[in-house]
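# nightly structure sweep
# worker-07 picked up a monomer target from the shared queue
# config: single-sequence mode, recycle default, output format = structure tokens
# input follows
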Amino acid sequence: SREARHEKEDCMEPGTAGIAHINKYSREHFDGGLICHWTAHKGRILRATRRYDIGDIILREAPLHIVQAANCSAFRTVEKLCKDYEDEFDYEPLWYWCAVQSLTEDQLHGARQEGLTGVSPPVQHNLLLLHHEDNAEDARPAHRLVRALVPNANPAIVERLIQVWVLNCFEYSECPQGFSTYFFSSFMSHSCWPNVVWYYEGADHVLRCRRPISIGDEVCISYLPESGLMQS
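# output follows
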């Protein structure tokens, strides 16, 4: 049965997975229509708690955090670091800017440049729950950012935030260039035969059913555009 298969798939989650917190967020924002489970082979996934028919809107989610390039000394410092240490900084300056703009007020205390605004502790908590690489091969950029900009920040947190943005962000704007992250919808897995489709309404993610979904079904999106699915 579907229930027996799910019981076999689910296993003890690691303490950092945040399943209870994620599901509390779902109940508060989306009436618990989807819940997060931990599985041995895929990690965190989302499953439906009710039936959805083709065309049903499953959820609408506002961005967790938006960061744009800025005309300020702090952003110019990030750009200079990327240029001066290009053998260490693998990404464009905006990725690193997103990370330092995801620090809290306490972590930004004593910042050496102006223009850093940061986030509230709850927003950072949700950001840090998003998928990231456990062991970054080279954390030198995080240490350089801390020394140049935010001496009270932990380089390990900065490195983790860099990975969070690289692996989870979406393009938000072109001029100025900006990225956005979303919390709950980031836990959906990819499928080449997805049962939901997402699109934008303004800055919001809207998730709509594209195939009938039963209670307990995993909800999957395509990380590829429709044209990419035709070639996969």
